[in-house]
Write a structure and sequence with these properties.
Strand order of the largest sheet of chain B: 5-1-6-8-9-10-11-12-13-14-17-16-15
Oligomer: heterotetramer
Number of domains of chain A: 1
Structural class of chain A: alpha/beta
Helix content of chain B: 10-25%
Number of strands of chain B: 17
CATH superfamily of chain A: Metal-dependent hydrolases
Radius of gyration of chain A: 22 Å
CATH architecture of chain A: Alpha-Beta Barrel
CATH topology of chain A: TIM Barrel
Order of helices and strands of chain B: EEHHEEHEEEEEEEEEEEHHEE
Strand content of chain B: 25-35%
Helix content of chain A: 25-40%
């Protein structure tokens, strides 16, 4: 069956196609080179529409233990946003911590077709995969959290060579069926288990006496040498602490030439100027990002309203638990791998700090010049629920709209941001880059994020409207692998997605070594820690992302 | 008159969630419109008109004939009045913020859970967890007045944060668990284990509780000006206790295990 | 381990590293011998041995109204009942996650309330966890870090035979990967409640053990007093416990402040029902009070028959814990209404799911009973539909959650799967609703 | 254009003058106690040293006694009014005086006697005396505080309302033939004015002998002896007194509103006139500053027009 999407204005920046009226032809779930007219074709009229590839969110906490803890704490949010189930959906609801079905439906209703869970803790990976398998209409993948795991820290501390580290990282990626490595507060989560309360980039942690810099560099080298496409996905030191802009700049300079992705950088761009000792470091950060082509970032924009924050960074979450709203929170030390902290938050535009956080995020979006190195995220649900993306897109594309909202926020925060002086408005091309092409490229997904021949036929038709929020909230048509799943913003079909993983090879000696580690230290068999291919997506198995040579 | 009278056609064979049938929601619609609404019935749905005979009311209120399976009556009520001629199921008046709910006979579990305002009057008895928190919520009832003429079940006023609950009869076990603030007034006997984790707030009783939760101490008798004041300011309390609310009471303080300074005042 | 490998009545096949899904502790070093249908445990705790053992009896047939029926007939009869019911009650829920998924699928199309037979302890803990939260640790963290373990209530080894062996091993030799990596090998374990059993004393040999002996009904008071002492209050002034217990708790508070990583554990299912939530609350409070200066965590025990999995799946599917009714476009979480006993008062159908052990369904006479249950189940009343199902981890593979709710474990099949899995049985029923599985 | 006819009531000249008054912030408190005596003691203490904002920071006095069955707790009580130059001052002075004079006084309780307006803290400020053992109750539409004290509990409302429509400095002068005549007339006036609700006479016994003018020859003194009305200064200062006047007394009135001040003044002047020329009263005058300072002008002729017409 062949489908022809015709008459739309195509934005496919990965293939250099910007605002060209042309046909997109689909066959067997993939886009093909236009064979010209003839044969039996289903025609989809895209006139009046912008045609984009399916959206890709490379950092959104959608599955796993901490999300479930978030659901447990957010029963009120769940009740406020019910999701009636009919023939398409399972059921569920919620906004800050939606159910699996609601997650898939809400994402695909906005034109997203792939979302990556950026914090899979090894011990909880099986759970995360079971949840991901239950999310309809979107493809998924997980980033494995390393950098606080005792086995790794022991290897580094004992002076084992890089090869051993590489073998371990490769083993863990395969064992947990993950597609990238995330580091959360390198060494910091581990330090907290030893009662360390802070750990700066060049500070030696307790017990192993390793600096975050050393842990970071070791893992950067590992993923580079293994050929994992996505660079280290770093949630840096000192999240949320005023003055952390210094740490963040130092971290960017500490990469020894390896590429680095800094995630939710908004939370790491705080200065200490002004009488409240809290200021925007966005300009310095943006300047540094602009000057360093090996750095990419996602923003982690905060959006006002109720949400829940879920992070492996228990050190930071413990620091923040007193400002939980509602006043409850859960922390966990997890299985020699990492930790988690789940803290409900209500960001208020009447709060100086929250208002400035909001402005800092937008400053970053607007001051970082290369859209290929900045990805659109709210760090769902930490900065705000992903359902706020259309609003965020309009804030970026519509200066008067942005200024209107700027006038609503806390007065003092307004005088602490240069947002009003920034005239930049994102173009449709840039939106296509930050929500599609760029995340696909950094994740090594060659058949995604674009509309060229061979690409997965994830195609979205947005009716061109001046109100970009409405436009991006209600696509006219969303196709997942060539199948129409959304029409006029409503779900019309449920499909099963796939899960991405990388499987770099590792020395069999590492198997033996980890068998002993799991037996003796962890108290679990390594064979039961490892997730078999057949356990992914109900037997479908993972989709393997090619390694970079 | 824009109110309605909803008379059950037969005793309910499954539980009904009546939370959508609020005076504000039904204002300005016709009886036929009401009949065409659906309500959760068991794990399915039913047309309101299939369960109830709907007629115009004599005033603005929504009036139900009751049934022990009629749940969530008045849940979320913010204004207006609901009257039930008969009994109701669970969670009547849960999360109510204003208005008035009157139940002529008994209420099930979870009456007034999470109440923040308004008045609830029950002329029969009520089940467990009156005025407690709704599932997952940190705190119980935070405001409003609930009066129950008869007895109540276990867990009265758990995590109560404010407001007044008046009980004409006995209260079951474990009242005032984790009570934070607010007032319980029980004219009958207070069941065993009351006041566990109680932080603040008051329980007014007329007979010394048989077995309080561990952690209370007796401060002795006192002539409380505050009780004289409440007797005049809060007519419901005066009506419940009559002459025993003279000001004289024995004060028990606790729960000291939780560092609490709540009180149980035994009126005399 | 595919079933095809099983040898017919030949020499028993030894299977090592079997994962156990029964009590929730998730031991995965069980050893069994398998010969045909016969499964003989070789290395397992007493409970696991009893529940894993299988004789040579062939699988019984499904029954409809007491008469043997085909699998398809039974599934279809079950569907007929489900379609006719208005207030179905799904109880037991002793199943692997695959089974739970299919049961929840049925609930979504046919409408049902869901609860697990072992959810009592879970809900006592949720009283703290969902309302206020806590800081918890997983088994491996306790195993390697805990230098002071406080146990409230009965000796947990009665329900979790190998708990102490798993979480409090004594380091054998120096260096290497042997646990504990970060705690002294002689650790301190304090029991508040009943004395250590002999078996536990043996498992904990090498550690410093102490007991604050109290009758069960005073354990919650002791827990509250301990939290009170940690809050800096003079608990001597609240002298409510007999003998020297108060003084011992004050001393324990000092030890806890000096400890580097203390852990508080309890089994909410065996504490007096009225007290379990209070113990969970006090233990969590103790952790909160210690956390500003040192580290501490709770380790709530539980998880029988994958109740943790049933709970986790309910959360990600419906956004609510168990004791939720699903159907007609909504999910309604009302523990007062949908705890099994309460739900059965309104129910017009009982679906009893119990694949791990032959537990009979709860008493119910107001409608049909469908049992997707262990073949050895003996029924007081013959169910309207009985589909005997295999046990996950014996008859077929599956997934279960461990008690700490973090680790999800793969179960393997040990013998030829003559019995359908609960997931297969539920799928067959679901197929009658026009839904594929 | 002819001069206005002199207004005479019972032989007393009502001069064509006016009392010039200022806006104030004011409120009413109700004090109860186990006995009338102790209720009075607390009320007297609370309103002590409160004659003039100039030196006391506020002006206060007992408004009336309240029978037990009309008080919030059913015990004997007194209502007092208290006035300050601004809300800010009132919010400072009320809790200060309540804390020192009512909280300390045996068996007393303190309640709000005025609703509406800006909230003035009572228990809201005093509760801290309880050192964490204080308890509040929010019942019957308002919050009360119970503060443990050695004798039992001190109960008080959390807040009291206030008004900024209050008026201070209503006044009239009694010009009499003799000191005894002036005093008798002043006492009669105070007794009559005590029946008017919502107004008080803050000076000792309701009467002030040291009426003042604005300013002084001494720097820093904002008020000084009203030389025009001092009989002994006739001849050296410009005088307002006819020869037959030997003594003058003033009555100063604060009220919760303009109307209450007017009512009070009228009642007082009427009582003074009741004694008449026969009682030694020559004239009734009023103090003002020329009309440029205070927005409220109580013209004696207008006030007394009705009385005169009888």
């Amino acid at each position: 069956m062949r489908t022809r999407v015709t008459g739309g204005r195509v934005f496919d920046p990965a293939n250099g196609i910007i605002d060209q009226v042309r046909d997109v032809v689909i066959e067997d779930g993939r886009i093909i080179a236009d064979p010209g007219p003839g044969g039996s074709e289903e025609v989809v009229n895209a006139s009046g529409c912008i045609v984009l590839a399916g959206g890709i969110d490379l950092h959104s906490h959608i599955a796993g233990g901490k999300v479930n803890l978030g659901r447990l704490l957010m029963n009120e949010d769940r009740a406020l946003f019910p999701e009636p189930f009919g023939d398409f959906c399972g059921c569920g609801g919620g906004r800050a911590a939606p159910t699996t079905h609601a997650t898939g439906c809400r994402y695909s209703q906005m034109g997203y077709t792939a979302v990556f869970e950026p914090a899979v803790v090894g011990a909880n990976a099986r759970h995360a995969h079971l949840e991901m398998a239950d999310i309809p209409n979107i493809d998924t993948g997980g980033f494995l959290v390393l950098g606080n795991d005792d086995f790794l820290l022991r290897l580094i501390a004992m002076g084992e060579g890089q090869q051993a580290i590489n073998d371990y990282v490769a083993w863990m990626l395969k064992a947990t069926q993950s597609c990238a490595i995330k580091i959360v507060n390198p060494g910091g989560i581990n330090a907290f288990k030893f009662n360390g309360r802070n750990l700066d980039l060049d500070e030696a942690g307790p017990f192993y006496e390793l600096t975050p810099r050393r842990i970071l560099n070791t893992l950067q080298r590992a993923v580079t040498e293994l050929g994992v496409p996505h660079p280290i996905h770093l949630h840096g030191c000192n999240l949320g602490i005023p003055g952390n802009v210094k740490t963040t700049l130092a971290t960017m300079g500490a990469t020894e030439g390896f590429p680095l992705h800094l995630t939710h950088i908004q939370f790491h761009s705080y200065g200490t100027e002004g009488d409240r000792h809290f200021s925007s470091g966005a300009a310095e950060i943006a300047e540094a990002v602009n000057a360093m082509p090996h750095i990419s970032v996602d923003v982690g924009q905060i959006m006002f309203g109720q949400t829940v924050t879920a992070s492996a960074d228990l050190m930071s979450q413990y620091r923040n638990h007193n400002i939980a709203d509602p006043k409850k929170w859960i922390g966990m030390d997890i299985e020699m791998d990492a930790a988690c902290g789940v803290v409900p938050f209500n960001y208020r535009d009447t709060s100086f700090v929250n208002a400035l956080q909001w402005a800092i995020g937008l400053e970053l979006f607007l001051l970082i010049e290369d859209p290929w190195r900045v990805y659109l995220t709210t760090d769902h649900p930490n900065g705000g629920p992903f359902t706020s993306y259309p609003h965020l897109i309009r804030l970026l594309m519509d200066k008067p709209f942005r200024d209107h909202h700027l006038r609503q926020i806390h007065k003092a925060a307004r005088s602490h941001t240069r947002l009003e002086s920034i005239s930049r408005e994102y173009t449709l091309e840039e939106i296509a880059v930050v929500t599609r092409a760029a995340p696909a490229r950094t994740l090594g997904l060659k058949d995604r994020g674009h509309l060229g021949p061979g690409a997965r036929a994830d195609v979205v038709l947005y009716e061109d409207q001046p109100d970009r929020e409405t436009m991006f909230a209600h696509p006219r048509i969303v196709m997942k692998d060539g199948e129409v799943v959304v029409v006029n913003g409503e779900i019309v079909a449920l499909t099963e997605g796939r899960t991405y993983a990388v499987h770099p090879p590792s020395d069999p000696l590492m198997d033996k070594r980890l068998e002993r580690w799991f037996d003796e230290a962890v108290g679990l068999k390594s064979s039961h820690y490892q997730i078999a291919d057949g356990e992914i997506r109900g037997g479908q198995g993972p989709e393997i992302v090619e390694l970079k040579p | 008159m824009s109110g309605f009278r909803l008379t059950l056609k037969a005793p309910l064979s499954a539980r009904v969630d009546a939370s959508s049938l609020l005076p504000e929601a039904l204002a300005g619609v016709s009886a036929a419109d009401v009949a065409a609404l659906t309500v959760p019935f068991g794990t399915g749905v039913a047309l309101v008109g299939d369960l109830f005979e709907i007629t115009a009311g004599s005033d603005e209120a929504v009036v139900f004939s009751g049934d022990p399976r009629l749940d969530y009556v008045g849940s979320g009520l913010a204004a207006g009045e609901i009257r039930v001629e008969g009994s109701v199921g669970v969670a009547a008046g849960a999360g109510m913020s204003g208005g008035r709910l009157v139940i002529s006979r008994d209420a099930g579990d979870g009456l007034a859970a999470g109440l923040t305002g308004g008045r609830i009057e029950v002329f029969g008895s009520a089940g467990k967890n009156v005025g407690g928190p709704r599932p997952g919520e940190r705190q119980g009832m935070r405001g409003g007045v609930v009066s129950i003429a008869g007895r109540v079940g276990d867990g009265l006023g758990a995590r109560l944060r404010g407001g007044l609950i008046l009980v004409g009869g006995d209260a079951g076990a474990g009242a005032a668990d984790g009570l934070l603030a607010g007032t319980l007034a029980v004219a009958g006997r207070l069941g065993p284990g009351a006041g566990r984790g109680m932080k603040r707030g008051s329980i007014l009783v007329t007979t010394a509780p048989e077995a309080l939760a561990t952690g209370f101490a007796e401060a002795g008798p006192q002539d409380f000006v505050a009780l004289k004041l409440l007797a005049r300011r809060v007519p419901e309390l005066a009506a419940l206790f009559g002459g025993t609310l003279s000001g004289r009471a024995v004060r028990l303080v606790g729960n000291r295990l939780a560092g609490g300074e709540g009180e149980i005042l035994v009126l005399s | 381990m595919s079933s095809g490998e099983t040898t017919e009545a030949g020499a028993p096949r030894i299977v090592r590293d079997v994962v156990c899904g029964f009590c929730g502790l998730g031991c995965d070093d069980i050893e069994v011998a398998v010969a045909g249908r016969v499964v003989t445990p070789r290395k397992a705790c007493a409970d696991a041995a009893r529940l894993l053992a299988r004789g040579d009896a062939p699988a019984p047939s499904p029954r409809v109204n007491g008469a043997p029926a085909s699998f398809a007939e039974a599934a279809s009869a079950a569907a007929v009942h489900l379609k006719a019911a208005r207030s179905s009650v799904f109880s037991g829920l002793g199943a692997d996650l695959e089974g739970h998924r299919r049961l929840y699928d049925i609930a979504m199309v046919a409408g049902a309330s869901i609860d697990h037979s072992a959810s009592g302890g879970l809900f006592a803990n949720l009283d703290r966890l969902a309302r206020r939260g806590w800081i918890a640790a997983t088994l491996a963290e306790v195993r390697n870090r805990c230098d002071l373990l406080v146990v409230f209530g009965d000796d947990p080894a009665a329900s979790f035979g190998r708990l102490f062996e798993r979480i409090m091993p004594v380091r054998k030799g120096e260096g290497g990967d042997a646990a504990p990596l970060f705690a002294p090998s002689g650790r301190r374990v304090v029991m508040i409640g009943t004395p250590f059993s002999d078996a536990s004393r043996k498992a904990l040999a090498g550690h410093e053990l102490s007991e604050i002996l109290l009758p069960p009904e005073q354990v919650a008071t002791a827990a509250a007093l301990l939290a009170s002492a940690l809050a800096g209050r003079d608990i001597g002034a609240v002298d409510v416990l007999p003998g020297t217990a108060g003084a011992s708790l004050a001393e324990l508070a000092d030890l806890l402040r000096a400890a580097r990583y203390s852990v508080f554990t309890w089994n909410a299912a065996t504490l007096p029902q009225a007290d379990a939530a209070a113990v969970a609350g006090s233990a969590s409070e103790a952790v909160d009070l210690l956390s500003p200066t040192t580290r501490a965590a709770v380790l709530p025990l539980g998880g029988r028959d994958n109740v943790t999995g049933a709970h986790q799946l309910a959360l990600w599917r419906f956004g609510y814990p168990l004791r939720t009714a699903i159907g007609a476009g909504t999910a309604r979480h009302a523990p007062d209404l949908y705890a099994t006993a309460a739900a059965l008062k309104d129910g017009d159908l009982l679906l009893h799911a119990s694949a791990f052990r032959p537990d009979p369904p709860p008493e119910f006479s107001a409608g049909p009973v469908i049992a997707l249950a262990h073949p050895d189940t003996s029924f007081a009343r013959e169910p309207d539909v009985f589909i005997p199902v295999g046990t996950p981890g014996v008859d077929h593979p599956g997934h279960v959650f461990r008690m700490d709710s973090v680790v999800c474990l793969p179960l393997q099949g040990l013998r030829s799967a003559e019995l359908p899995s609960l997931a297969e049985a539920a799928s067959a029923i679901l197929a009658n609703f026009g839904r594929g599985a | 254009m002819s001069a206005p006819a002199p207004l005479l009531i019972n032989g007393v000249e009502i001069r064509d003058s006016f009392a010039e008054a200022f806006p104030m912030a004011g409120t009413r408190l109700i004090i109860t106690a186990d006995t009338p005596r102790w209720a009075h003691t607390a009320a007297a203490s609370l309103t002590g040293f409160a004659t003039s904002v100039i030196g006391c920071g506020c002006e206060a006095a007992i408004e009336r006694e309240i029978p037990a069955d009309e008080t919030p707790d059913g015990r004997p009580g007194y209502a007092v009014l208290i006035f300050a130059m601004s809300l800010k001052d009132l919010k400072k002075i009320v809790p200060l005086r309540a804390g020192q004079c009512v909280l300390t006084s045996p068996t007393s309780a303190l309640y709000s006697g005025l609703e509406g307006g800006s909230a003035v803290p009572l228990g809201k400020a005093l509760r801290y005396f309880g050192d964490g053992h204080q308890m509040s109750k929010n019942l019957g539409g308002s919050r009360i505080w119970r503060i443990p004290v050695m004798e039992g509990e001190f109960v008080c409302d959390e807040i009291v309302g206030s008004t900024t429509a209050a008026v201070g400095g209503g006044n009239f002068l009694i010009l009499a033939r003799s000191r005894p005549a002036a005093l008798a007339a002043a006492e009669a006036a105070v007794a009559a004015m005590g029946q008017v609700r919502g107004a008080i006479m803050p000076f000792p016994g309701g009467v002030v002998r040291s009426g003042s003018k604005v300013g002084s020859k001494y720097a820093g003194l904002i008020a000084s002896s009203n030389d025009a009305y001092c009989p002994t200064l006739r001849g050296i200062a410009k005088t307002a007194l006819p020869a037959e006047v030997e003594s003058v007394l003033e009555i100063v009135i604060d009220g919760l509103s303009e109307g209450e001040v007017a009512d009070s003044m009228r009642a007082g002047i009427t009582a003074v006139c009741g004694l008449g020329a026969a009682g030694g009263v020559v004239a009734v005058d009023a103090g003002n500053y020329g009309g440029n300072l205070g927005p409220f002008h109580f013209k004696l002729h207008e006030l007394m027009a009705q009385e005169a017409g009888r």
